Structures are given as structure tokens and as C-alpha cells.
Amino acid sequence: MRALTKPLFPAVDAAGQFREVAFALLLRGRRPVEVADLAAATSLRLDAATAAAATLATAGWLDLDESGRVAGAAGLSLVAGPHRLTLGKARFRTWCAYDCVGIAAALGGDALIETACGQCDAPITLALRSGVPERSGPERLWLADGGQDLRGSFCTPTVLLCGDPHAAAWGSARQGHGRSLDLADAARRGAADWAGCATAARRLT
Fold it and tell me: Which residues on neighbouring strands pair with residue 113, listed in sequence order?
């Protein structure tokens, strides 16, 4: 990975910027990111970047490996997550099913999602072409409302489901704390939610 000698992105929201830069570096390098590279890219001192990474990891917004390198950010991970996302020839994991759909849609490339129905555990495989799902259904995405615990209250219950009956059962078990989306709507929403990460990734190319 080439050395980063100046900030690549304007400072807007510090935590959001940090996650977006980490996402972009993970996507480009396909290996854990040294905090020193994040410090250089975000114009932070190394001690401040190290503290930021630790704080975000504790809150569930980053994955850190045993060496303190960033191995996951903004849902894209090299080490953790039950869902598989292939972008071109690069294989990643994601924390929730919405991460898979949103990241692929925002990047606008070809992708393959491999996961399982949250209700019955049947395998689900979805392809996206130029960021758009190849088919419109019958699968549904359950988008949880979330809460203070990012991984537990949002990531874990946000899943893909075989169809409307399983989406209804999943939602009922969670007392309606979320919504059921078709694949096209999930991709549109995801493209907007990961737009900053996609912009950061483009600036690194």
C-alpha cells in the first residue's frame, strides 16, 4: 500500500470521515489497514487516530484485528459477519444483510451476495449488476430500527428473508421494530446510505 502523505478527504464529521476512509482503504487494499495510514489520510495525529479507532471499535463501528489494525468499517469486513459479499473478484464479509445490498448498490459494480434466510436458514444468493439487483423478488430485506447497540439491535436482526410470509413472521417476532423492503427499494436506500463511502473509495483510485 502506498504511503499517504496528505489528507485525501475534507474534514466534515470526524467519526464519519474516519469510517469512510477506513472503508475505502479496506476496499482498495483487501487487507487490514494500519492506523498510521488512517491518521495520514484524515489529518489526525497517530495517538488521536489510535484513540478514535479504539472508541469506534468499542461502539461496534469498526473491527480491529489482534494487532490493532482496522479489519472492518461501515459494514465491510475482512474478519467478521455472517453475510458474504463478493465485489468483482474481492471477497468480504458484512455485519448485516443491508450492508451487502447497500455497499454493492453504492459502488455501482457487479456483486454477489451469499447469505441465508433469517427465518428458515435457507441459502439466499443474489447478484447485482452495476449496483442493481438482477431480480425483484420474492426475497425481502428486514431493516431493523436499531438502538444503542449497533451490532445487537441493528446488525443482527437486519436480514434477508425468503419472501413475504417469512418477512411477516420475522417482523412479528420483533414486534414491528423495523420494516420489510423489496430488493429494489433496499438497493436505492443503501446507495444513498453508503454514498460517502463510495465517494471515498473513488477518491483513492
Answer: 85, 126
